[in-house]
Hints:
Blueprint: H1 4-14, H2 31-35, H3 42-45, H4 53-72, H5 76-82, H6 87-95, H7 114-124, H8 128-141, H9 143-148, H10 151-163, E1 168-171, E2 187-190, E3 196-207, E4 214-224, E5 230-240, E6 246-248, E7 262-273, E8 277-278, H11 284-295, H12 298-320, E9 322-323, E10 326-327, H13 332-360, H14 368-393, H15 404-411, H16 421-448, H17 452-467, H18 487-511, H19 519-548, H20 553-577, H21 587-600
Parallel strand pairs: 1-4
Antiparallel strand pairs: 2-3, 3-7, 4-5, 5-8, 6-7, 9-10
Helix pairs in contact: 4-7, 7-12, 11-14, 12-13, 12-14, 13-14, 13-19, 13-20, 14-15, 14-16, 14-19, 16-17, 16-19, 18-19, 18-20, 19-20
Amino acid sequence: MRGFGVLLKAVRAALPAGTRQFRTACPRPAFAKELFLGTFRKEEVFPYPEISNEELEEINQFVGPIEKFFSEEVDSKKIDQDAKIPQETLNGLKNLGLFGMQIPEDYGGLGLSNTMYARLGEIISQDGAIAVTLAAHQAIGLKGILIAGTEEQKEKYLPKLASGEHIAAFCLTEPGSGSDAASIQTRATLSEDGKSFLLNGSKIWISNGGIADIFTVFARTEVVDKDGATKDKITAFIVERAFGGITNGKPEDKLGIRGSNTCEVHFENTKVPIENVIGEIGGGFKVAMNILNSGRFSMGSASAGMLKKLIEMTSEYACTRKQFNKKLSEFGLIQEKIALMAQKAYVMESMAYLTSGLMDKPGIPDCSVEAAMVKVFSSESAWVCVSEALQILGGLGYMKDYPYERYLRDCRILLIFEGTNEVLRMYIALTGMQHAGRILTEKIKEIKKGNVGTAFGMFIDRIHDSIGRKVDLGLVGKDGAVHPSLEESAKKLEQNVYYFGVTVEALLRRFGKTIVDEQLVLKRVANILINLYAMTAVISRASRSISIGLRNHDHEVLLANIFCTEAGFQNNYAMAELDKNAPENMDDSIKKVAKQVLEKRSYICSHPLERTF
C-alpha cells in the first residue's frame, strides 16, 4: 500500500480505539431463511444498520480523493475503445490502496469493513472495466486466501496483493462446466513424494487471466474416503504464474466491460507445492461457494452508484431538452422513467447496506441468501434502468459520443457473472425450502410422538387462516419498529411474510423432495423472497431516516411506500399462482410451448401469409 493508502492508515491510527466491532465465534440466525417459516426476526433488521461517527469520518477520508481520481484521471471512453486499462490508471488505483480494500492492515491492506467496501464500490462502478478488474482481484481472486488460507499463506501472498504489485484471478469456469461447477475436469495429480501436485487443464472467461500473477485454481484430485475408497473431489490451490507451465489466450473481444482482461488460462504440468492447497484437499467446492457467496452483496451498492450517476445525467437532459414547446421533464411518461430509476436505486442501495450491516455485525453471519438476493435484484434493475435512461435520450443515447450505450453494454454482464440469475434464484429458493423442510419435519415427528401441544398449535393456525387471520409481527403500533408514515407498507410486509410461510409449507407438503425439479415454482418462491427482503430494507431505512431527521426523508418515505405497494401486489399474485390448480398458473402451457419449439428447434407457427385453399 503506497501514497494515499499510507496516509489513510495514519489517519486510522489516530482514531479512538475500539471503533470496529470484531466478530465472535457465535453464529447468528439467518434472517432470510426464517422468512420461509413466516418468521420475521425484526431485531436483525430494525433499526437499520449504522456505522459509528469514527467509521464515517474514516470512509470520508477515502471518498473525496477517489472521486477526484475517477473524474479527472479515468478516461472511460478510451478504456472502452482501446479495450485496455492504461498502466498509469492501474498505478493510480494501486496508489489509492484500492487493490487491498478488504485485506487486513496487518498484511498491508486497508482492512475495510463490508459496509465501507460497499461505499467505495459506488465510486469505482463509474467505470465498469475498472470495477470488474478490482472485483476479480479481491472479491474472488484473493478471497480464498483471506477466508480459508493458512497464516503462512496470508503472510506470503497478501502484502503484494494488497499493494497491487501482484494481481489475482479466480479460475473455476471451464469449456464444459459453466454454472455446473462440480463438473470441472482440470486435474491435479499428487507427486510420488507427496510434496507437490502437477496441474493440467484449461479455464475460460477468466477475468484478469492475462495480467494475473496469482491464481486461485480449482481442480479435481484423488481423495481417499474414510471407508478406504478413492474418489475424485475438487481442491483449491494458490498457483503462481512463476511456477511455470501457465499460458493464456488473447483477450476476449467482449460486448461490454471491454477494458477488463478476460481470457483463457491453460495449465500444463504446472508444479504446485502441497502447502499451496487452500483449506483441505477435497474441500475446494466449499471454498469456491464461500468465495462467491461472500462477494455478491457489493453489486447492490455498485449498481446504485452507477444508477445515481445516470439519474444526474438524464435529469439534466430532461430538464433542458424541449419538444412540443415543453421540457421533457414535464411529460408524464418521462417522469415515470425518472421515478422508476430513483425507486430502483433506493431499493438496491437499501438492500446492499442492510446486507453489509448484517455481515459486519458481531457473530458469524449467514448472509449468503441475502447477498444472492441483492445481486439478482440489483443486476436486473440496473439493466432495466440503463435502458430507460437511454430511452429518455432517444437517438442521442444510441450514439457512441455519449456514455449511455456503454453503460448498457457494461451492465449486461451483471445478470451473468458471479452466478447467473437463474442459478441464483434456484439457490435462494432451495436453500430456504431446505431450511423450512427441516423445521417442519421436526414438528411432524413431534406430533407422531404424541406431542399434543405442537399438534394443537398447527391446528389452531389452520383455523385462523381459514377465517382470515389478523397478522401482527410487531412492526407497527405502539411498540412497533416502523415509523407511522410507513405503517401501511409494514402491514403489507407482515401479511406477505406470514402467508409466504403458509405457502412454503403447502408447497413442501405437495411436492416433497421433488420440489428441486419444479423450477418455475422455485422462481416464484425466490421472487417473493427477494421482494420481502427489499420491502424490509426500504421500510427499515426510511424509518431510520425520518426518525433521525435526515434531509429529504419524506422523499425516502415516498419511494418506500411506492415500492412496497407494487411489491406487495406482486407477492400476492405470485402466491395465488402457487396454489394448487390456480387458474392464474400457466406453467403447464409454458412447458408445452417450449417442448413443441425445442422438438423442432425452430419457430413452428405457420406464416400469416400462408393459406390452405
